[in-house]
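Whiteboard transcription, Tuesday session. T.W. wrote the structure tokens on the left side:
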């Protein structure tokens, strides 16, 4: 998918109706009701009606009707990437997502700053999946990788990995607020293009 505008946001691991995740992630909410209200508020404070949000998995722990209320309270067009706690039938029942990807997807976003980079043709490539990928497509040419699943738990121990152009966009890592393309770009500028030889050596 190619986008000519940069009005794109990313988030993952909302874990709606998951009481224990507040303790597991040390989330700054008294209970799930407060978490839901605050996350809707933060989402809508940055996302406009015509913006696109990629949700990288683990939306909710059941309660389809409650989840439906939540997602229909959000602005923007939502594209969902399936996580390990998601069920396709439940996501489709929400009647809210503009697209669903079972394992992941990649997009290209128009960005003049990529002009001259090999194979980019003025677009930034972004590889997304629920799970972190060690060697993702065209990482050696500067593509970005966004993932969720780990709730920021890998960052302290896998520092070399996160020096590359990769980012955990799980909501605990981004203040429970969808992060914009421009914000991701700012962070990626601090990182290096990591070269991982995926062909192997003979």
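and on the right, the sequence the group agreed on:
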């Amino acid at each position: 998918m190619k986008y000519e505008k940069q009005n794109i946001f990313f988030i993952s691991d909302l874990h709606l109706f998951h009481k224990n995740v507040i303790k597991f992630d040390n989330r700054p909410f008294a209970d799930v009701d407060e978490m839901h209200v605050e996350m809707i508020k933060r989402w809508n404070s940055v996302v406009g009606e015509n913006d696109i949000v990629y949700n990288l998995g683990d939306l909710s722990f059941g309660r389809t009707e409650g989840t439906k209320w939540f997602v229909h309270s959000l602005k923007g067009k939502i594209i969902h990437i399936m996580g390990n706690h998601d069920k396709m039938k439940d996501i489709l029942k929400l009647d809210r997502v503009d697209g669903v990807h079972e394992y992941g997807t990649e997009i290209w976003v128009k960005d003049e700053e990529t002009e001259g980079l090999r194979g980019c043709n003025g677009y930034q490539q972004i590889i997304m999946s629920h799970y972190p990928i060690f060697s993702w497509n065209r990482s050696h040419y500067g593509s970005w990788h966004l993932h969720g699943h780990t709730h920021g738990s890998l960052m302290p121990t896998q520092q070399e990995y996160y020096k590359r152009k990769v980012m955990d966009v799980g909501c605990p890592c981004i203040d429970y607020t969808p992060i914009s393309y421009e914000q991701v770009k700012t962070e990626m500028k601090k990182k290096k293009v990591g070269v991982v030889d995926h062909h192997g050596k003979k």
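Someone added at the bottom: The two ends are 36 Å apart (CA to CA).
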